[in-house]
């Protein structure tokens, strides 16, 4: 900052040694604070994997249901088998069946209680997870909680740019704990968690997770694993599966 | 009532061309439904001599039946008649059912009003998540028509016994059938629920001359799962990006101040 004509008063004016010492002290404090803050910032920026506390790795409960075996050897015999008493129904156009949509989901053991809204599909073909992290999306094209068959899918963000989201509590859930659903009609549904899985998004069994048939299950999904900054996404999904709990 | 129905050439033909079954379906059996689209004729349907469907009313559809690939004799008797007591009103002997297909067998009228039997393949190829498939079939004694959804023509110039198919966003549409190129409504309007991941098959049946044109609706699964569940926004499930950035910015700011102060101090010596 030295200037040839010496016009800069701040750099040319001589100051008492006392002030210079005080300035050195301020600089030292600032430097120490800077190092500390930088260290904190860097520590904050180190990505850490998000994992459920009860990850049942290697025990995929989301395998596709196996269809009833029909050995080819019996094909010849079946060729003669003809159904009798086949049911019929009126084929007139009818309105869509009314669906009792879920409105709230709770996992009391981990203190999770969130509103549920119906969601569909994004432009890119992925499930449309609500932007608001206080909301859980119910995949409205699939079965609703309380359906007789198929997989009801509820998903919410595990975090936002402001930090962990309420749904991250699900990471602490373990098999055996309860999931409660309230529906639009006020019905209370109760499920019991059977598995908490961490699955790579590359290998996610989407057809099983979003099954329209087979035994009815509830799936609570969020993200986990390592944050892939380049992709702007976590590498894994956390899939909590629960079955209807009669008790 | 002993009206003999001729088997439509279309039936055997359609079944014969279905040999190429989709790779994903089981190849040893097919899903077969039967739609009754001949007005004024309640029937019993016999398959290989066994009564499969009884008191089958016009405008009704059977539950899907699983039929093993093979040859079938299909006989339709006027209600009350049996193979022992009378002649079938309609007969299709040696119908070859392929494996791995989803078929609808339709008793219907030709454009000129003659009863016939047709077999139609239902498209179960999955649609994209969020989408629905609409299939329309003209199996009525009526001239060429257009099919409209929410008053826009979506299928133009459809003649008996042709069909057409399209994919659209899932949802409810108001559908009607007009004489082609006009806005003279022949059938409808009717609200159609085009459910996601479903092929909604709408068949126009009946007779324009007799004033009993109607729509029949069948649905078959054609769903696919979404391609993923993007449920993380910031990579900060354990920490806050904002906090981190603020801390980093503060660090840079303090460092700048520190360096500057040091330099000033040196200069002042």
Describe this structure in words.
The complex is a heterodimer of chains A (247) and B (269). Chain A is an alpha+beta fold. Chain A is 17% helix and 30% strand. Chain A has helices spanning 9-12, 17-45, 75-80, 206-209, and strands at 88-90, 102-107, 112-119, 135-139, 151-155, 159-160, 163-164, 178-183, 188-200, 217-228, 233-244. In chain A, the strands form two sheets. Chain A has an eight-stranded mixed β-barrel with strand order 2-3-4-5-10-11-9-8. A two-stranded antiparallel ribbon of chain A has the order 6-7. In chain A, strand 2 (102-107) and strand 3 (112-119) form a beta hairpin. The longest helix of chain A is centred in the first third of the chain and has 29 residues, at 17-45. The model of chain A is unreliable at 1-16 and 55-79 (pLDDT under 50). With 269 residues, chain B is mainly β. Chain B folds into three domains: 1-121, Sandwich (Immunoglobulin-like); 123-231, Immunoglobulin-like (Sandwich); 233-269. Chain B is 13% helix and 47% strand. The longest helix of chain B is centred in the C-terminal third of the chain and has 28 residues, at 241-268. Classes of the chains: A alpha+beta (247), B mainly beta (269). Chain A: It comes from Agrococcus sediminis. Chain A: Residues 52-77 have a biased composition (Low complexity). Chain A: Pfam families: Sortase. Chain A: Residues 1-10 have a biased composition (Polar residues). Chain A: GO terms for molecular function: hydrolase activity.
């Amino acid at each position: 900052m030295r200037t040839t004509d010496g016009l800069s008063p701040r750099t040319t004016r001589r100051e008492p040694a006392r002030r210079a010492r005080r300035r050195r002290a301020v600089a030292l404090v600032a430097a120490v604070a800077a190092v500390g803050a930088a260290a904190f910032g860097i520590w904050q920026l180190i990505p850490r994997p998000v994992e459920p506390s009860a990850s049942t790795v290697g025990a995929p409960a989301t395998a596709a249901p196996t269809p009833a075996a029909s050995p080819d050897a019996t094909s010849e015999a079946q060729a003669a088998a003809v159904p009798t008493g086949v049911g019929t129904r009126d084929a007139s156009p009818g309105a869509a069946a009314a669906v009792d949509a879920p409105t709230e989901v709770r996992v009391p053991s981990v203190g999770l209680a969130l509103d549920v809204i119906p969601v569909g599909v994004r432009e890119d073909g992925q499930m449309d997870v609500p932007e608001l992290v206080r909301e859980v999306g119910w995949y409205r094209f699939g079965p609703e909680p309380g359906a007789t068959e198929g997989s009801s899918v509820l998903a919410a963000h595990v975090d936002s740019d402001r930090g962990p989201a309420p749904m991250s509590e699900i990471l602490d859930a373990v098999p055996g704990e309860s999931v409660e659903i309230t529906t639009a009609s006020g019905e209370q549904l109760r499920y019991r968690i059977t598995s908490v899985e961490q699955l790579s998004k590359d290998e996610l069994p989407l057809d099983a997770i979003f099954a329209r048939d087979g035994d009815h299950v509830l799936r609570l999904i969020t993200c986990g694993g390592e944050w892939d900054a380049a992709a702007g996404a976590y590498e894994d999904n956390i899939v909590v599966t629960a079955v209807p709990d009669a008790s | 009532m002993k009206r003999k129905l001729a088997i439509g050439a279309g039936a055997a033909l359609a079944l014969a061309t279905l040999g190429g079954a989709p790779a994903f379906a089981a190849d040893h059996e097919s899903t077969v439904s039967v739609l009754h689209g001949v007005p004024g004729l309640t029937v019993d349907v016999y398959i290989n001599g066994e009564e499969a469907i009884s008191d089958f009313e016009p405008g009704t559809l059977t539950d899907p039946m699983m039929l093993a690939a093979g040859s079938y004799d299909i006989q339709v008797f006027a209600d009350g008649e049996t193979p022992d007591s009378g002649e079938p009103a309609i007969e299709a002997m040696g119908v070859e059912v392929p494996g791995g297909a989803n078929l609808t067998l339709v008793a219907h009228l030709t454009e000129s009003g003659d009863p016939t039997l047709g077999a139609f393949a239902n498209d179960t190829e999955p649609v994209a998540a969020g989408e629905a498939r609409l299939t329309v079939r003209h199996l009525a004694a009526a001239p060429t028509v257009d099919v409209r959804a929410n008053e826009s023509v979506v299928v133009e110039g459809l003649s008996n016994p042709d069909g057409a198919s399209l994919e659209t966003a899932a949802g409810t549409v108001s559908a009607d059938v007009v004489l082609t190129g006009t806005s003279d409504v022949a059938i409808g309007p009717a609200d159609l629920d085009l459910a996601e991941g479903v092929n909604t098959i709408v068949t126009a049946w009946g007779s324009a001359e007799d004033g009993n044109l109607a729509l029949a609706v069948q649905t078959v699964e054609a769903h696919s799962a979404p391609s993923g569940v993007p449920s993380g926004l910031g990579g900060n499930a354990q920490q806050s990006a904002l906090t981190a950035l603020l801390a980093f910015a503060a660090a840079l700011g303090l460092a700048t101040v520190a360096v500057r102060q040091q330099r000033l101090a040196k200069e002042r010596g």
